[in-house]
Write a structure and sequence with these properties.
Elements: H1 25-40, E1 45-47, E2 57-60, E3 72-83, E4 86-91, E5 99-104, E6 107-113, E7 119-125, H2 126-139, H3 150-165
Antiparallel strand pairs: 1-2, 2-3, 3-6, 4-5, 6-7
């Protein structure tokens, strides 16, 4: 089921997400819905808060569904190591129509659990590292806008406020 994606301004996007203690059918259904929602958007990652659920769950597929075997679903993901930096254009399904240069680690080590509750460890670099960091930020109540300079962030926020006043947001 495709779920509505919350946009910038929704308070749920600014809340620290709750850890998942036990994976049940409800969590598995949520993960499947998130994948469908992400592909329909289209996007390469989605965090549960973006669909209004305050849980530490992310889905990723940096192929955008173009290749099989690239889906990653993690509960309680955490970056445990990082190195280097990379800067690239970044967008967000919760901030549609806007992108900005964002600096992220170039390599990371992520831990979490799969939908069976099994521990997972993933070494990621490049786009995958960027996507993990972006989605984990969502779980911490943070948008990529928070990583921009005050000037750039305020410029985007002003444009969004204008869209809101026009009823287009």
């Amino acid at each position: 089921m495709i779920r509505p994606i919350l946009k910038y301004g929704a308070p749920e996007l600014q809340t620290q997400s709750t850890s998942i203690d036990r994976v049940d059918e409800e969590i598995r259904t949520l993960a499947q819905d998130m994948l469908e929602t992400m592909y329909a958007a289209p996007g390469i990652g989605l965090a549960a808060p973006q669909v209004g659920v305050n849980l530490r769950l992310i889905v990723l597929d940096i192929s955008g569904g173009e290749e099989t075997g690239h889906q990653l679903i993690l509960t309680n993901p955490e970056v445990t190591e990082q190195e280097g930096t990379q800067e690239a254009e970044e967008g967000c399904l919760s901030v549609p129509g806007f992108t900005a240069l964002v600096e992220r680690p170039s390599r990371i080590h992520v831990t979490g659990q799969d939908l069976e509750g099994n521990p997972q460890e993933i070494d990621a670099e490049g786009l995958l590292a960027r996507a993990f960091c972006h989605e984990i930020d969502h779980l911490d109540g943070m948008l990529y806008l928070n990583r921009l300079s005050v000037l750039k962030r305020d410029l985007i926020k002003r444009k969004i406020r204008k869209l809101i006043r026009a009823g287009e947001w």
